[in-house]
Every structure is written in C-alpha cells, then in structure tokens.
Amino acid sequence: MITSNKHYQIIIIGAGASGLFCALHAAKRGKKVLLLDHQTQAGKKLSISGGKRCNFTNLDISPEHYLSQNKHFCISALKRFSPIDCVKFFQSLSINYVEKQKGQLFCDSSAQKLTESLLAECEKHQVTTLLNCKLTAINKNAYFNVQTSLGEFSSTALVIASGGLSYPNLGASNFGYKIAEQFGLQIINTHPALVPLKFNAHDTEYFKALAGTACKVSIKLKETTFYDNLLFTHIGLSGPAILQISSYWQPKNKLTINLLPSINLYDHLCQAKTQKPKVMLKTILAELLPNRLAQLIGQQQNNLPLQQYSNNALKKIAEQLQNWQLTPIGTRDYSAAEVTAGGVDTNELSSKTFETKRVTNLYFIGEVIDVTGQLGGYNLQWAWSSAYCCSLAIQ
Ligand code: FDA
User: Fold this and answer.
1) Is the C-beta atom of 68 inside 6 A of ligand 1?
2) Beta carbon of 131 within 6 Å of any ligand 1 atom
3) How far is the CA of 259 from the centre of ligand 1 (A)?
4) Is 255 in the pocket of ligand 1 (CB under 6 A)?
5) Are 390 and 24 contacting, i.e. CB atoms less than 8 angstroms apart?
6) Predicted confidence band at 1 (pLDDT cuts at 50, 70, 90)?
7) What is the mean pLDDT of residues 211-227?
8) Smallest Cα–Cα separation from 394: which of 366, 368, 356?
9) From CA 357, how far away is CA 355, in angstroms rounded?
10) Residue identifier of the C-alpha nearest atom 18 of ligand 1
C-alpha cells in the first residue's frame, strides 16, 4: 500500500510521450517527480506508434505543419527543442533513425524499445511512476492535492499530460479537458483528426468494389492541398492523403481529388487516341492507374477503343479523374483517429513554459493542448518540445 500524503515538487498526470519526457527532464534537473497513469502500462500509444516503428520526428518542421487557433503558439517550443535536438537525444539512448519520405524519421528498431528506453531513463533519474492509478479528485490550496486509488499526493507543480481522446482502448480519456474546466480554462472544441472519412451509401458501394486499392493523388480542400496515397476501403476512404485532409475537413466541405496529379490526362488520352486508336480505354488507364480502378472507370465509360471517343468525351473523362468532387458525410470517430484536434486554448498558456496564465504552477503539455500536427512525426515532436520546455520552467 502506498503511503498517503507524499509530497513531490512535480506531479505529472499521464505517462505517455509528453509525460515521460517531461518527467525525465525535470528529474534530470534534480526535481522530485511523481508520474501517474491510469493504465497498467506506460506509453501504450507510443509503443504502437508509426506502425510500431514510431515516427518520432520530422526534419522538415514549421508552424504550417500544425493546426491551432493560434498558428504562432508552437514556434517557441519547436525552436527550443527542435527535431535535431530530438535526434541527438534519442541517439544518446542508442535509438537511431531511418529516414522515410519527406524527412520523416522512424526508429531503426521499434517503438517499444523507444518507450522502454524512456522508462529506463526515468527510473535511472528516480522518477516515481505509479501505474493503474485512478484519479478521483484534484484540488489546489497552497499545494496541489491529488487523490487517487493509490493514495493521496501533493505537489508544488502539476503537469497535465493526459493526451487527447483518440484511441480510448489505449487509455485516452477526457481527463485533461475536465481539469482545464475545473480551473476555469477555455477549451477549443475537439474533433477526430488524422482519421478516415465516411461517405454516403452510393459512394461507399463504389469504394467497396475497390477496397485495398491505393493510388497517389492530390487532394484539395479550399487552400489546403496534400500529395500522398489514397486508400479505398470497404467503409470509405483512408490512406495518408485522406488522413491529412481530414484534420482540415468540416461538415459539408467538398474535397477535390486528382487521381493523376503528375500528368495532363486530357492531352495524354488525345495523344494515345492518335498513336494507338484501337487500344481500349481501360488498357490506357491501366498504364496510369491501379488495374482495378482502371477496369472500373473503363466499364463506367463503356470501355471502347479510343478512336470511338470524341475529344469532348475524353475531356469529360479526364475532368472526372482529375477534378473528382466528393463530399464526405463525416469522419470516423475517435477510436480510429490518430489524434484529437482542438483542446486547451493556447491563449490560456505561456508558449515558453506551458504554465496556465490563470493558475500558478499548473501546466498542460502535449496533445491535450489545441495544437495538432499533420501526419509525419509532427505530433510526437510536439509532445517532446512542449514537455521539454515545461520541464525547464518548473522551479
Ligand atoms: P499520450 O496519449 O501519449 O499519453 C497520455 C497518457 O495519459 C496515456 O498514457 C494515458 O493512459 C494517460 N491518461 C489519460 N487519461 C488519464 C486519466 N484519467 N488518469 C491517468 N492517466 C490518464 N504521432 C507521431 O508523431 N508519429 C507517429 O508515428 C504516431 N503514430 C501514432 C499511431 C497511433 C495508432 C496513434 C493513435 C497515434 C499516433 N501518433 C503519432 C500520435 C501521437 O502518438 C500522440 O500525438 C502523442 O502520443 C501524444 O502524446 P501525449 O503525451 O500528449 O498523449
């Protein structure tokens, strides 16, 4: 049984990416740190991140890679603990990287190893970690008083690192937002982000026929465009291009998809018609698109030899494939969303220390804040940067 009323300089709630990182760096500075989590295992999400290889940062980083009501909020922390600092830090723990597309850095070993290394470092620097610890109440008088299923603890500083609502099966909860509300902080409405999109029954039926097919597309919503893979699934659309645009999507917004972003399809079809007039439409399309998609589009267009299509008809076909307008009916829920957009309003926090402006010694870090990264290592970099800056600030 844990002794009650233990006092710490810092209590951190949430032993995920940001909580572990903050605990470790604060403890390295000699602070007495208690790290609490309601799960039986620390860093559950981190351990499966990036397809179990953990895309832990991205070398190409700028505020444009983040969504927030305040675009500038993330700048200071990302500068003070940059992707290069992150690489150096993990290399010091013998975690090296493999660079995938667009500067995305993944562990050369496994996400599990990265999590275990952080935990081992926490232990080495005498962080007290309590798992399977259910929080029942938090109050503030001279100190923060934290009541839990494992006893009562007090601290001078309290750090909320409890993440967003995504993947509740890995321990996500609304805890951080509830604490923010308790202390009178504003919350920006949350919604699932980096999440597959859902469509009406007619569109879904079409996608079902193509389930498992992927192709490189450009996808546009108002001023925002991504070039990446789109995946047809039996319940809608997914893949990196869709996940990226989903963070920007709002109900009734229309998406414009170009299935062949690197060519002018009309010119290509006209040229093919001149050079190979007897070749069937689907054969030409199959040179450019995955076979099943080419077959389906060919069928819809009566699949004739190219010479039987007027240039106007070819223009319409090209237009359909390069300016495909689709309106999702929604996103999938938090159980399928990689992150949660929205959260604690950045106006409530110092961008240097992550302390709340209203409550002295109360800090929020990581995904619980209204800062949401794009796909590609940006969310973990945010977790590290915010945690690091917070750890330096706590006296
Ligand atoms: P995080 O969710 O990591 O940790 C929160 C902790 O708080 C958890 O341990 C939870 O149990 C605990 N907690 C919650 N409620 C509590 C309560 N009431 N009491 C006590 N404890 C509580 N990003 C990226 O950059 N690269 C990647 O490769 C991936 N891959 C990826 C895959 C999958 C499947 C998901 C779902 C997400 C990703 N992400 C990602 C996103 C990234 O994992 C995420 O943004 C960070 O883990 C957020 O770190 P936090 O510390 O803020 O929350």
Assistant:
1) no
2) no
3) 33
4) no
5) no
6) very low
7) 97
8) 356
9) 6
10) 175
